[in-house]
Design goal:
- By secondary structure, the chain is mainly beta.
- The protein has one domain: Medium-chain alcohol dehydrogenases, catalytic domain (Quinone Oxidoreductase, Chain A, domain 1, Alpha-Beta Complex).
- The chain is built from one helix and seven strands.
- The strands form two sheets. A four-stranded antiparallel beta sheet has the order 3-5-6-7, with no helix packed on it. Strands 2-1-4 form a three-stranded antiparallel beta sheet, with no helix packed on it.
- The radius of gyration is 15 Å and the shape is elongated.
- The N and C termini lie far apart (30 Å).
Length: 98
């Protein structure tokens, strides 16, 4: 997959659009194909570096995303493949359909 990542902290110059490994969800995760991603202050703070917070590198920013569910565990009942969803602050919810 293609992603904007950074390998070190800094300004916008550290961002690189590059190939990244496809994510592999665990048994309790839902896989979402990202269609849109917002930039917010958390992303900027993470890119610049936060005191006493270690951010694994390379890092893909994106705290607020919209996309489509690609895969769900067999026992998942709230979300199904093809559902349009938004993810914010680590919480997944269905997108409004109207």
């Amino acid at each position: 997959m293609k992603a904007v990542r950074f390998h070190r902290h800094g300004g916008p110059e550290v961002l690189q659009y590059e190939e990244a490994p496809d994510p592999v969800p665990s048994a309790d995760e839902v896989l979402v194909r990202v269609k849109a991603c917002a930039l917010n202050h958390l992303d900027i703070w993470a890119r610049n570096g936060l005191p006493n917070v270690e951010i694994p590198m390379p890092h893909i920013s994106g705290s607020d995303i919209a996309g489509v569910v690609e895969w769900v565990p067999k026992e998942e009942t709230k979300f199904g493949k093809g559902d349009e969803v938004i993810v914010r602050k680590g919480a997944l919810q269905l997108s409004p359909t109207d």
